[in-house]
Amino acid sequence: MENMKSEYRVEMIGITKSFGVVSVLQGVNLKVKPGEIHALLGENGAGKSTLVKILSGVHQRDNGTVLLNGVEINPKNTHDGQVLGISVVYQELSLVNDLSVAENIYLHKLGASKFWMNWKQITKDAQELIDSLGFVIDAGAKVRDLSIVQKQVVEIAKALSEDTKVLILDEPTTVFDPNDAKKLFANLLRLKSEGMSIIYISHHLDEIFKIADTITVLKDGVDTGSMATKDITKDNVIKLMIGRDLDELYPTRDAREDLAPVFEVQNLFGSDGFVKDVSFSVHPGEVLGIAGLGGSGRTEMAKLIFGADKKKSGTLILNGKIIKTDSPFDAVKHEIGFVSEDRKEEGVFLPLSIRSNISITSFKPISSKLGFINNQKECENVRGLISKLNIKTPSSEVDVKNLSGGNQQKVALAKWLSIDSKLIIIDEPTRGVDVGAKIEIYNLINEVAKKGVGVIVISSDMPEIMGIADRILVMHKGSIFGELPKEKFTEENILRYSIGEELKE
Amino acid sequence: MNTSINKQANGLGGILKFVIKHNTIFIFLLLVIFSAFISDVFFTETNLSNLLKQVSGIGVVSIAMLIVILTGGIDLSVGSLVALLAVTFAILINVVILPVAILLTIVLGFALGSFSGYLVAYQKMAPFIATLALMTIARGLGFIYSKGSPVTFNSPGGSFMSDFANNSTLFVPNIAIVFFIIVALAAVMLKYNVFGRLVIAMGSNEEASRLSGIKVSKYKFLVYAISGSLAAVAAIITASRTNLGSPNMGFSWELDAIAAVVIGGASLNGGKGNAVNTLMGVLILGLIGNILNLLNVPSYPQQVVKGAIIILAVLFQKIESKK
């Protein structure tokens, strides 16, 4: 082992990682200097999160080397990572709701240190830490009572409560308004000047060009090299990220707004009062996009339409007729389909075969009056959909749990193509899906829309929703805040509506 | 089909895999061979038909239990229902003609099962609690109606049923035939009927079922109602075999039934299990009791052995699921 100090704080060399048969990282390199903000970019599923999880100890690499200050490290879990000074602020919040802010920030010390905790001291330390970040949060407050932005700040404070050398931020600003984001950047620049290495994952190129020194782009599990931010343009980065022009990824269509709407919602209210006064229509051949931040009511609205949650009031009109959907059963009877964002819990039956999964919505045409299933008809139907959707499987009897995420998602979709749905609501169509399957799913959505089926796509993935939708409704706090026609699609416009601001003229 | 046989022939590992996959059948066969070696009496017609008669009632109840467990629920009331319905059947058979007595008993079973079904499906009560309540209610009612003592059959219909239950057709006891028919019906329903497929889907993911437009509550309700009806069938064959209905019948059958279903490889979380394997579970439990009886092992050690077998069977299935 050489004792010479490396120029880099973190060196990840030739990292590979597979989950089952899915190869996520195929020899990725990432080198971060002390006092550097290093942006990690790439599409969803490109392997960014996996890479940082290997660095922090959540996952273990299959092959490759990880050096910290020139010394090889093998963190087996996040605790190992923390001891080494590697802290992560995750996208999904990991706070304990019933504990106070201070308790959460110093949670990791509960098990480690002395028998008795000095809560007074801990609360004081936590308060100082938060104050130093420039946000106003009471360290004694219960996390439950904080806003989502405040929770994110607590996450960041938690990561900084240790002797952190490497700070990893995974999409930290999705919930921030521009003002809060500015504060965060000031903090990051301060930490950088103190010599901290910061790895910053984000989709917001504007942000990255503001604060990052270096950019590394991941594409399908391979890095496309690192560049100094000053030597590269946004367009170049986008090209590296998607590896092709946008047109290729997202098929085009002709929306027929001249025709009567397939589906209309008028003044929809949810029984819990969160979703308020939602009205819109979907035209034949159109893909209607629903954007908004997490928690803005998109999924809730979809579940109201589908009858999965209780409505207070509102009118639904399908092909000119008023319909009632008091339960998913009613919705399916009217040939409305719903693909949940939570594939494993709500979308598919993991322990059951592809055949059982697909047939679940479509027993009527393939069974007798007494409910006996015509095996031949069932197999024909299932096989037809497997080949149509290009579900990669040796047979229809394979359990869905053994399929990749993309193929599972196709099974979830196939269920609704098995009946001739008139309206399909797809919540996060490609979450956790690899790029190849993504394109297939986009083509499929396209094909379905062309047939005159109303398609509503909910997505947090900005490039995706801009690519696939003909029109975007943006939700904010349970209502539709704004509508964007295709020519006004920009990440900034969507974001502005998402946080309840008007567009800049 | 051919390819699967080829795979099995793929050396020792393949054979082992095959054995592990169909472990209940192999355990059953091993027990049969073991029993035949250990006792001369085992392979006599009297012993075998006694064995089958003994397991038939519990067997029917086990199928009921399987259907409920497939949805992710449980029905603790089946044993007590057998007692209450056996008493009911014995009272009825002495006052009305046989077909009416049978029909009324089954209708009552359906109604009692519907009661727990209603609590579980529409009042969202935990199945364990709802059926536990019905279990004590039914047991109590059985004692109340019978005034604590067995009600004997005392009518032409009664003697007809008694003859039917104690005779055989082609060496197979009639009540075992009833049991096998129910197993076959359940197997067909679970595999080839929409009802069965939905029951399994519900058990494997209830929310996904609901979001696929399935009336989950309706099927939950039905499953308990069917369980109650099958308990009535078990009550009728059990009472007929002994020529009486007793409030002590079916004691702890719910536990034997759960054991049989679990030995048959079903998951208590729902969504996994089938009727033929449950049949094997019933026969395995019956065989163990039978062979220990032939060896003159007293009943308390028998219980210890039964418990050990349940643990072994489930451990064995863990190996299978890890593959």
Account of the 3D structure:
Helices cover 35% and strands 23% of the residues of chain A. By secondary structure, chain A is of the alpha/beta class. Chain A has 2 domains: 10-245, P-loop containing nucleotide triphosphate hydrolases (Rossmann fold), CATH 3.40.50; 248-498, P-loop containing nucleotide triphosphate hydrolases (Rossmann fold). A 6-stranded mixed beta sheet of chain A has the order 6-7-8-3-9-10, sandwiched between helices. In chain A, strand 9 (214-219) and strand 10 (222-228) form a beta hairpin. In chain A, helix 5 packs across helix 6 (148-160). The model of chain A has no long low-confidence stretch (mean pLDDT 85). Chain B has 323 residues and is an all-alpha fold. Chain B has one domain (52-322): ABC transporter involved in vitamin B12 uptake, BtuC (Orthogonal Bundle), CATH 1.10.3470. Chain B has helices spanning 2-8, 11-21, 23-38, 45-70, 78-93, 98-121, 127-146, 156-166, 174-192, 194-204, 206-210, 216-242, 253-263, 275-294, 299-322, and strands at 151-152, 168-169, 172-173, 244-245. In chain B, the strands form 2 sheets. Chain B has a two-stranded antiparallel sheet with strand order 1-4. In chain B, helix 5 runs antiparallel to helix 6 (98-121) and helix 5 runs parallel beside helix 7 (127-146). Chain B is globular, with a radius of gyration of 20 Å. At the A-B interface, helix 12 and helix 13 of A face helix 10 and helix 11 of B.
